Amino acid sequence: VSAPEPLLDTRTVGGWRVHAIQAGGQQLDGGAMFGVVPKTLWERRIVPDARNRIPMGMRCLLVEHDDGLVLIDSGVGNKESAKFQEIYGIENAGLPGRTALEAGLQQAGFAPDDVTLVINTHLHFDHAGGNTWRDEAGEIRATFPKARYVVQRGEHAYAQRANERTSASYFPHNWEPIFAAGRFDLIDGPQEVLPGISVRLTPGHTPFHQSVVLRSRGETLCFLGDVVPTSHHLPLPWIMGYDVEPLVTLESKRALLADALKGDWQLLFEHDAHVGFGRVALDGKGYRLAE
After folding, report:
1. Cα 28-253-60 angle, rounded to 5 deg
2. Residue with the larger pLDDT of the pair 212 and 7
3. Are strands 219-223 and 266-268 parallel, antiparallel or unpaired?
């Protein structure tokens, strides 16, 4: 498995430069990724390997905001075992001892110390794992030592009480060192975290999952997170088996995609191995990726 290319895709949203950083590749079971959708349908869009796994990305977004450098989600990090990486097909090598996320930052002309705010859509290992890193001495440190970190209070509480179904996705070493340093801010509900950057509750995948909406000079970009993980998940009923409340996901998607269509939003697909940015279209068969 190789990390999908390109590592860095730079665009503009109004007055801001934004960089989609492909923080690595992973391979997950296609059936789990498409839930109740039959394989005969989803394999027409994306071909699984011999183990029924499909290629996926771990795309993060770096925003050159007027108030500082903002990072949305952080990939899987470097702390997990070789066995873990083999199970999930993770390939995220980048800078020596670090990951493709740090390599992407460097390619964009920045370093981890330059990031001032990290927004996590939720705290699953492939979205918040890069919040921290394991150094050569084995100590776990904040990857972005000068940044504040933001997540929904309800998401943190949900992660703290993980059960038999959810514990495989929530690893406290991805957030506890940040809390210990007093730099994790818990927020409640939709709000503007910086001028032009808002979080929108899009529950279903987890009960307090949030997407991030950027608005600048009449242009809008939505970082979807796991409410629509790939462009193949645009049809409303195409929902991951991983979602804890799939019917809630359905309504989150319905409302968000209607707004995206009406407002001509750009969308960023976090887990799509090949399509980063796109817009949504609606035809007689439902939502699809616009040409």
Report:
1. 50
2. 212
3. parallel
Decide if 58 contacts 271 (C-beta within 8 A): yes
User: Would you give the distance in Å from CA 37 to the centre of its chain?
Assistant: 22
Check pLDDT > 80 for residue 4: no
State the average pLDDT over residues 6-14: 93
Give mean pLDDT, residues 255-282.
98
| C-alpha separations of 107 from 12, 94, 139, 271 in Å | 17, 11, 26, 21
What residues contact residue 100 under an 8 Å CB cut-off, 6+ apart? 3, 7, 21, 22, 23, 24, 75, 92, 93, 94
The C-alpha atoms of residue 100 and residue 120 are separated, in whole angstroms, by 18
The residues facing 275 across adjacent strands are: none
pTM of the model: 0.96
Helix/strand/coil (H/E/C) assignment for every residue in 91-102: ECECCCCCEHHH
Confidence of residue 119 (pLDDT cuts 50, 70, 90): very high
